[in-house]
Predict the 3D structure of the following.
Amino acid sequence: MDLPDYAIEAHGLVKTYAAKGPSPAKTALKGIDLLVPRGSIFGLLGPNGAGKSTFINICSGMVKKTAGTMKIWGRDIDERARDARAAIGEVPQELAADVFFTPRESLETQAGYYGVPTAARKTAALLAALGLTDKANAYVRQLSGGMKRRLMVAKAMVHSPPVLILDEPTAGVDVDLRRQLWEYVVGLNKQGVTIVLTTHYLEEAQELCDQIAIINQGEVVACEPTSSLLRRLDTRNVVVTPDQPVLAAPDLPGFETRLRGKDGAFAVTYRTGQSSVEQVLAAVRASGVHIKDIATEDPNLEDVFLSLTRTRA
Ligand code: ADP
């Protein structure tokens, strides 16, 4: 069979949650188009309430769309719901551990649920890949939070889906474990698995994702390769370390400012076509701040994110 160009393809996707009691109806996705190229590590970013979980939950079949079309691995979720769902492994945000199972049992049960024949199961390999071999027969309730999360990734992969979706996989996870998890995920991607992830860590997304979509208030405000997204901004930052640390970044007319780091430094963003470092420094001085040191830096994903989500937030 020909492989699809897109692991996920959504057109005109709408989701309206019905009114419930005092809560009015809410349109969480306003007719979005989103293409996830096969083989990519695709980051889905956006502020809280943007619609990321809604999108992911439509992919995994947990939420029913209101209108529009979606294909997963070329399979229409209306016409071939089961096939579409089988193409996806999902690691949910919540740690929903089966406390009465051991990791080995948990993976076996999940494989059974997906109809994976005993001979084709990869329980031992998955446990090993996620560093859980020596916990294979422990009760899940005895595992640390990090181990439980790794177990959830293993569970998502029991049926060898071509697409793996991770919803905030590293929220509240320590740095070492985060690295370990990413190594595994990047390894899967090298083997051809398309990865879709949501994360609040923009640095992480910048480092890992080759494609990024930014959603804001139910609309896609950007969807492109990470490198082109970063090139899109004609901004640079000047990071100012003041003589006396400031508690709040000064308001500078015509410039974006925000606090940076612990020592009372702040960043000033300017448009390269419109202003110069000289003008930034003049504005800083005019605000009464004495400058101890400055550095300039290229825009990062956080700047892109702020500039795309600020106007309509
Ligand atoms: P995100 O994952 O980006 O934080 P969500 O998809 O969870 O955003 O939510 C998008 C919008 O839809 C929010 O305004 C949220 O309050 C609303 N929403 C999400 N789930 C439900 C639900 N089950 N019922 C009603 N409204 C919901």
Summary: The two ends are 44 Å apart (CA to CA). The chain has two domains: 6-230, 235-310. The first helix runs from residue 52 to 59.
